[in-house]
Amino acid sequence: MKVVAGSASLGLGRELGRVLKASVVDVAFEKHPGGFPDGEKYVRLLDPVRGEHVVLVQSTHPADKLVELFLLQDAIAEEGAKKVSLVIPYFGYGRQDKRFESGEPVSARAIARRLQVQADDVLTVSGHDPRILTFFDIPARDVSGIPALARHFEGQAMDLVLAPDDNAERFARELGERLGLEWDFLEKKRIDSFTVQVTPKELDAKGRNVVIVDDVISTGTTIATAAKLLREQGTKRVVAACVHGVFAANALQRLQACDEVVATDTLLSPATKVSVAPEIAAAL
Ligand code: R5P
């Protein structure tokens, strides 16, 4: 088994190689220093993969990482790998997993259909909805990134785990159960990308240490709004936790409303504090 990591997942790829005791293939991402002047992507495998079971790891965000992934898949096929297990730590476009309005695509399905062309099986991490797996015609599984977050909080004096909305309830339940903590969820209504309404709820949050957990933090609006509400209720410490830290549009600044922000390494950011490599390795 050999690991090939795209440029969105180099750290996780290295960690996965270490956990799996598999070598990590050296990849060049530029043909010339500075890359192509027009911004097109380039990859070249610098180690052989002929006859190997290749674990190809790449998050598909931002979108040019998706192009890079297509190129890596093709290079691996050209070099004669025996089998390709595609690991997509963060499945970009996963939130458009249905047509919300007429005229829209099912973006997650459009991407899944193309990725499966040069893969034997696929593994996602805390995919936005289990429905995404059904878009693949090859064996597809999802592993949870919540156990990795739980490792971060072990030994910390947290009191309550909260989801910012009912969609994230399952993440709060899983984290709460792993840490042996009480868990609950808030009611959220999204107005637009930067505005959400979180309904105040009777919570025993005063003077307590609270983790707010979601699968994805994008603009940080959801969690920052929930954190503000908790502050008003006299919460002592508010920690924001997510599997996928997209952190778009100055999200980390918005999240200064929290005492700490924690994310896994499905995407690299200043908040990356834990790795999902053990979960991926166990599933492989
Ligand atoms: C939504 O369905 C996701 O689970 C997150 O709640 C959402 O992506 C968070 O977005 P933002 O950080 O922009 O509020």
Could you explain how this protein is built, in words?
The mean pLDDT is 96. The chain has eight helices and 16 strands. Helix content is 27%, strand content 26%. With 284 residues, the chain is α/β, with parallel strands linked by helices. It has two domains: 2-144, Rossmann fold, CATH 3.40.50; 146-265, Rossmann fold. The protein has helices spanning 10-20, 64-78, 107-115, 146-153, 169-179, 221-232, 251-254, 277-283; strands at 2-5, 23-24, 27-28, 44-45, 53-57, 83-88, 121-125, 140-143, 160-163, 182-185, 187-192, 195-199, 209-217, 237-245, 260-264, 272-274. The strands form four sheets. The protein has a six-stranded parallel sheet, with helices on both faces. A six-stranded parallel sheet has the order 10-9-13-14-15-16, sandwiched between helices. A two-stranded antiparallel sheet has the order 3-4. It is globular and about 60 Å long. Residues 95, 167-168, 214-222 line the site of ribose-5-phosphate.
* Low-pLDDT residue spans: none
Helical amount among residues, as a percent range?
Answer: 25-40%
Mean pLDDT: 96
How many DSSP E strands?
16
End-to-end distance: 11 Å
The secondary-structure element order is EHEEEEHEHEEHEHEEEEHEHEEH
| Annotation field: number of helices | 8
| Count of domain modules | 2
CATH architecture level-2 label of the largest domain? 3-Layer(aba) Sandwich
What's the Cα radius of gyration? 20 Å
Shape: globular
Bound molecules: ribose-5-phosphate
CATH class identity of the largest domain:
Alpha Beta
Strand order of the largest sheet: 2-1-5-6-7-8
Largest sheet: 6 strands, parallel
What is the percentage of strand-forming residues? 25-35%
Q: Helix/strand/pairing class, anyone?
A: alpha/beta
CATH topology of the largest domain: Rossmann fold
